[in-house]
Amino acid sequence: xxxxxxxxxxxxxxxxxxxxxxxxxxxxxxxxxxxxxxxxxxxxxxxxxxxxxxxxxxxxxxxxxxxxxxxxxxxxxxxxxxxxxxxxxxxxxxxxxxxxxxxxxxxxxxxxxxxxxxxxxxxxxxxxxxxxxxxxxxxxxxxxxxxxxxxxxxxxxxxxxxxxxxxxxxxxxxxxxxxxxxxxxxxxxxxxxxxxxxxxxxxxxxxxxxxxxxxxxxxxxxxxxxxxxxxxxxxxxxxxxxxxxxxxxxxxxxxxxxxxxxxxxxxxxxxxxxxxxxxxxxxxxxxxxxxxxxxxxx
Length: 298
Known about the structure:
This protein has 298 residues and is an alpha+beta fold.
């Protein structure tokens, strides 16, 4: 087998990224994603592209936040691993897969080749997630009308609320942040993400009962790819009443009233209550995502 060449791309060589087959329909999944040419890398053998990766971040970020497009040719798992190992950015890796990929032998084989390459590069699975997309043909979810939604200008109020919500979270990324830095870090990471998104700060809402008790929060956002459900959370003492659905319904209405023609959302596969709320609110699953994190052990 001939030697492998790892190549960083630029505007002149960006076309090389498109020379690899796309069995997992990543191009369609990323039709609204903007990747910078200089954050793309390919591995070549005998002048042929055998692995590729696209790192991604917001328009003002100086370094990528993650890698969300990664492919390897059949039998080239080691080339894919080398592409990841030698990258200047060691960040979380997302693999977005078609719904039902496990049941299709061709899709499963393609996915497993990528998983093998990632493991060889020292990445380990953090969580599996379900990606949702609401569109008008599904109809707007009914508003139960049980809660009052108010804006809140003080970030400290949201910070306290997020700490309380994360004290009983099911979210894998939040649990990782709690392990690394406690509830303060988990809450701050959420706030940092909300502010990173280009949508207006005044959209954020806190939900209250008629008696004035804070139940939770919904955060309607626009990320760089469009309108999304940024966060849904209920404080522990008010769980068990189905309020997460109320928050999701209100968040959807909020975005649609401000011109959204679609709304995306996501939850961990194991978060069965939130998955049920997305289904109830008219959000079908459109992709499945596996999040891998670098361990530095390759």
